[in-house]
Amino acid sequence: MLFYMVILNLAAGFASASSLAGVCTTAHARASLPHDAYQGILIDDSSVQANSFSNISISDVMYPDAVIDYCNVTFAYSHEGRVDDRVLVTYWLPAPDKFENRFLATGGGGLAINSGNTSVAGAIPYGAAAGLTDGGFGSFDVQWDEVFLLANNTVNWQSVYMMGYQAIHEMTVIGKAFTQNFYNSNSTLYTYYQGCSEGGREGFSQVQRFAETYDGAIIGAPALRYSFQQVNHLHSGIVEQTLDYYPPSCELDKIANATIKACDGLDGKRDGVVSRTDLCALQFDLKSIIGAPYSCPATVGSMMTLPAPAQNGTVTEKGIAVVTEILKGLQDSQGRQVYVPYQFGATFADAATEFNNATGKWQIPENGLGAQSYGSEWVERYLLLQNSSTLPTLKNVTYDSIKEWMVLGLHMYSDSLQTTWPDLSSWQEAGNKILHYHGESDNSIPTAASVRYRESVRKIMYPHLSYNASEAALSEWYKFYSIPGAAHCSDNPYQPNAAFPQTNLKVMIGWVEKGVAPDTLNATVLLGENKGANQQICAWPLRPFWNDNGAVECVYDQKSLNSWFYDLDAIKVPVF
Ligand SMILES: *[C@@H]1O[C@H](CO)[C@@H](O)[C@H](O)[C@H]1NC(C)=O
Ligand SMILES: *[C@@H]1O[C@H](CO)[C@@H](O)[C@H](O)[C@H]1NC(C)=O
Ligand SMILES: *[C@@H]1O[C@H](CO)[C@@H](O)[C@H](O)[C@H]1NC(C)=O
Ligand SMILES: *[C@@H]1O[C@H](CO)[C@@H](O)[C@H](O)[C@H]1NC(C)=O
Ligand SMILES: *[C@@H]1O[C@H](CO)[C@@H](O)[C@H](O)[C@H]1NC(C)=O
Ligand SMILES: *[C@@H]1O[C@H](CO)[C@@H](O)[C@H](O)[C@H]1NC(C)=O
Ligand SMILES: *[C@@H]1O[C@H](CO)[C@@H](O)[C@H](O)[C@H]1NC(C)=O
Ligand SMILES: *[C@@H]1O[C@H](CO)[C@@H](O)[C@H](O)[C@H]1NC(C)=O
Ligand SMILES: *[C@@H]1O[C@H](CO)[C@@H](O)[C@H](O)[C@H]1NC(C)=O
Ligand SMILES: *[C@@H]1O[C@H](CO)[C@@H](O)[C@H](O)[C@H]1NC(C)=O
Ligand SMILES: *[C@@H]1O[C@H](CO)[C@@H](O)[C@H](O)[C@H]1NC(C)=O
Ligand SMILES: *[C@@H]1O[C@H](CO)[C@@H](O)[C@H](O)[C@H]1NC(C)=O
Ligand SMILES: [Ca+2]
Q1: Which residue out of 52, 197, 373, 560 is catalytically annotated?
Q2: Alpha carbon nearest to ligand 4 atom 7, residue
Q3: What is the pLDDT of residue 305?
Q4: CA gyration radius for the chain?
Q5: Which end of the chain has fewer CB atoms surrounding its CB within 10 Å, N or C?
Q6: What is the dihedral angle through the alpha carbons of 76, 81, 83, 87, rounded to the nearest 10 degrees?
Q7: What residues flank ligand 12, with Cβ below 6 Å?
Q8: Residue 488 catalytic?
Q9: What is the pLDDT of residue 495?
Q10: What is the pTM of this model?
């Protein structure tokens, strides 16, 4: 009897050495710590925690649904010579027999430096270990604005550089070495980055500085050109204030819907998706909407939307004047262009108004509500260095003050947050790839902001080539796709038949490891009646157009392309 038990235990022990539970132990994780991976970093042996999870269902727009098993390892490190310094990192690791020599670095969104469990989960189905960091902010769910000031007017610069680029790099370098130790592997570890919005900016922060660390970066709707991007959230509200008209929420919604309806067919296909916002901007007369009736039931409001009473009315001349001004992008009091606008067909998130029960009037939302609050907090806390998340008033703010704040941010954060360094020679020379995408109906970060950065890279890196020749050279390693109908890092209920590029990691792996270049980007319809359908997205600078046979063609259209480029003549220094 005893004899048999020993045999059974031996067998069980042997099997578990390569099973998830067998390696997902604190002892094995501690033995795998890479103490020499990063100069000046001291890993705390006693901080290691490891827990295995099985049969976990994951679902997100960024990857196809899957069921995964993984090991979550968390530990802490500090920087030599710095006091009160403790950075937490988490790595998710697939079972040893599922590991395919890949590592995925991930970032955050908004003022968060990580995305909790959502981004790392997408790595596991591809046999990749994945990492995230808390930036040293205190714990994984502490947002950067909670630690940015040490007191009024005293910046915690360490937090700025950690958020700016340093923390993700440390997490990645340590994570790569840890992963190799964990699987006792010395095979090539392909290393990727994937993130959207602030996570997209963090991706470019790595691309611009750390070519040797990565093989490919998947970057969505990046919040780069940070000093412009954040203040830009104030622009729409200040248009309303300047024109002294605050459109009711239902009127704004109606204008967006009517624009989508009117411009849908310009791309050759009536599917409720404005795939050619450029043709919409060139051909659609917003004034044609004046007088259109609207009706909305009362809404209670949520995290994303403000409460509103029931509304009936017709689109007004003033409402169209406001929207027309918003869609020009910020111009200063002398009519010079300061920044790029959103595209026609995007909803007007920054312009959202709030109904004031006491006055019976619509107004710019108060108390830090609404999308304009990102701009308000940026100015109050990060530029004026006050420990508060809202400006005390917007009443004296003008187009010129928004411009001045954009320039001030450029002065203060050009080496940390701006993230527009346009010379990517090191990345290119290392043979690394960039897959950059942006929803064409993004209402939070203008699609044209991404187009502008890529154009800066093209001009800086290929100054002596013709447009077509430089585009061809750039597209060898840096591809950009504007995703028709997509909203900010997500699918879009206003254009449900649009496809979203959900398989980007698979596409990038194919490009880096097998040399399969994504001449069009694989995408999937995630909403509506065609849910599950596959579509291919044209690579910039080509634009989609559906021919008479109902097939999409990727066409070159100079007039449309020109509509995406802006001469920011209000700013005297180059804005990449
Ligand atoms: C995995 O989870 C699903 C649904 O949560 C459940 O039906 C199934 O029995 C589980 N399988 C195992 C092996 O635990
Ligand atoms: C991620 O965390 C959320 C909130 O705690 C939880 O509901 C979800 O099940 C978790 N997902 C995974 C894949 O662990
Ligand atoms: C991983 O485990 C740590 C420690 O138990 C926990 O704090 C953290 O929330 C987990 N992270 C994820 C993304 O699952
Ligand atoms: C910061 O300034 C505000 C007023 O501007 C004041 O209420 C607050 O106490 C100050 N906080 C600190 C930490 O000085
Ligand atoms: C900033 O204000 C918050 C309350 O709004 C407070 O909890 C925090 O301690 C303050 N931080 C500093 C550095 O003054
Ligand atoms: C990797 O490890 C194997 C044995 O485990 C060894 O034969 C080989 O030389 C190693 N390769 C490198 C590049 O270190
Ligand atoms: C606009 O379209 C959305 C999505 O189809 C719909 O939910 C909403 O009711 C519409 N609003 C108006 C004012 O037409
Ligand atoms: C304003 O009135 C609406 C009903 O019209 C109500 O739902 C809402 O709670 C009120 N809001 C405030 C801030 O009082
Ligand atoms: C708006 O009009 C609809 C009918 O079109 C009506 O049922 C509703 O009561 C009206 N609501 C308001 C607030 O006038
Ligand atoms: C607006 O007024 C406040 C209070 O008077 C002042 O502190 C602030 O500097 C003004 N802002 C601008 C942009 O003029
Ligand atoms: C650039 O290439 C496009 C096709 O991709 C072509 O239509 C266009 O004429 C070319 N422009 C020049 C200046 O050669
Ligand atoms: C492309 O997307 C479809 C779903 O739309 C998916 O089944 C397929 O695996 C993807 N192909 C690649 C190369 O990612
Ligand atoms: Ca269409």
Answers
A1: 197
A2: 387
A3: 79
A4: 25
A5: N
A6: -20
A7: 503, 506-507, 510, 522, 524, 534
A8: yes
A9: 98
A10: 0.95
